[in-house]
Amino acid sequence: MIQTLPGFRDFYPADCAARNYVFARWREVARRYGFAEYDGPILESVELYRKKSGGELVGQLFEFTDRGEREVALRPELTPTLARMIAARDREFKKPLKWFSIGSFFRQERQQKGRLREFYQLNCDLIGDGSPAADAEMIALAIDLMRACGLTKDDFFVRVNDRNVWLQFLAARGIAAERAPEFLQIIDKIERERPEVTAAKLAPFGIEPAELERFMAQPVAKLGGALVAVEADLRARALTDYVTFDPRIVRGLAYYTGVVFEVFDRARKSRALAGGGRYDDLIGLLSDGAVKHPTFGFAVGDVTLLDLLRALPHTAARLDAATKAASAPDVYVVITDEAFRPQALGLVSLLREAGRRVDFPLTAQKVSRQFQTAEALGAAHAAVVGNEWPQVKLKTLVTREETLVPAADLPLLANVTGRGADAAGPGPA
RNA sequence: GUGGCCAUAGCUCAAUGGUAGAGUCCCAGAUUGUGAUUCUGGUUGUUGCGGGUUCGAGUCCCGUUGGUCACCCCA
Questions:
Q1: A271 and A150 part of one domain
Q2: Most buried among A13, A219, A289, A379, by the most CB within 10 A?
Q3: Overall domain count for chain A
Q4: Chain B: nucleotides under 7 Å from a protein CB?
Q5: Range of A167's domain?
Q6: What are A211-245's pLDDT values in tens digits?
Q7: Distance between CA atoms of A341 and A361, rounded to whole angstroms?
């Protein structure tokens, strides 16, 4: 049997339902924040990704030459596509723009916990506003995305920093701005690296580890940058329980220019659940200077998030319920006597026309088996069609209550649905 | 890209180098108009794939594919 390619997944119905549950929460919250959905092509010219820093990213592309001799690649991220779209039709859109997208992305690297070769991401970008208010709006959005999946402040938290904090730190010590990227790499790795290695890397900068520790231990007011304003904003939204200001968060990439953040699970069992930050120069860079907009963007991945939702009992229960409800019929039509199959089919059609989810046995089956099937499918009701026709026995499977109703009335009964408010899914925690 | 561990029925797992098994699931019946439990019977495998050692390999060796975890990297 041919297996799936490494790092790629089959989505069986239960997996698809779980994925759709997360996507539905993402869409719902993004729209609540006034974001509009967009998308781009999955296949792009390799050139689009070479423009941006290159290096590791280009090395991990799924790339090939198409029949038109074009060098193409499956998209590893969305930002370059977004930048092109903005640059191409910039004047059409009133700023600031709030755009989001949900789609799959591809990176050819060894898979490990929380990281596959094909994965889904929600990308949210706020384009054309460089204020701390925009930073805070995006962080608040990230928090609400997590909360909508049932996660609480005991399950996750957001670590926030402003890269400018470090630029000021370096400037105050007379260190040239050109050396900032190298320095930020050291900070980025500080949690994973042995202290003596970090100390050795800091030596060329003339910075003692103790000095660094003292600096990072300062309160937000002393750290400076946009952090004070961001904190005040989040406080007004009553979100500070979710946020930790932490200078160690700088994000690996070179293009971030201001506030950055990462979302982690409290137990710290997994890699970041989401991450992003301000990149005020990138759209200009990618559009060859044609368009310049201060922008704040972040992404949430499906792999790590679903791992966490499945690992925590209270979110796993929600996910499970949503997964079951996704395909559960409102009514399972039980046919006790094949002589009434035509009537049963008529009833099935009427119920479906009324918008109900309806299933029934395609071939003759024992009644006990039909009820088992109804149960297994998670049906809310069974409608028993037999010699009481033109009446049917409507049974609520959970309570086992039965009532005799005229078949013609069945599609009109508003309560013949097991889903209730499911269409919108569970609300925020 | 580097390294560790793993791969046996649909699923979870057994099997001193010596006849491939159990539980579960599924199917049928006990029960010809009602879901649970119980009981009875039944289906299910090129032991991931390819070589090698051996009288004999699920088991030992080599390779390979996939899974998993860590490193690298993290858009």
A1: yes
A2: A379
A3: 2
A4: 1-3, 26, 28-29, 31-36, 65-75
A5: 13-40+78-321
A6: 999 999 999 988 888 999 999 999 999 999 999 99
A7: 10
